[in-house]
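Input/output pair, single chain:
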Amino acid sequence: MMIESEERPGRGLAIAAMAVAAVSFVLAVSTWMAWLLVRPKLLSGAVYPIVTQVFLLVLGALWFVALLAGVLAVVFGLVGGARSRSGDLARGGALLGALTCLVALIGAVTFALSPTWAPLQLNYDPGSYSGQFGR
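Output:
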């Protein structure tokens, strides 16, 4: 009876690891799809620059969220029994969480190194101050 009660939290953590890993992996891949498919259209289209900048910031934040969720899935998997013989579900959750961490980390580094911000357009007239205020 004691063995059964000790395995229950591990089984629950294994299920949680797999669920969190699956959701965070889909989030990371979806963020990559948006980065590769939607971002070029926003940068070249007739969209306000602030909309493009907010969209890029949200994508960057989603990669960091997916990275944290991947780490959480790895921790749940390891605590849930990924190292034991009967810990196939926990091991799968930990491995999928590690893959999620890799995908999200590559995305976060890509975002940090080349966010490709929309250029800020200023009307500057060096002869007067009115050019700075849009007159």
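The mean pLDDT is 80. The chain is about 75% helix and 0% strand.
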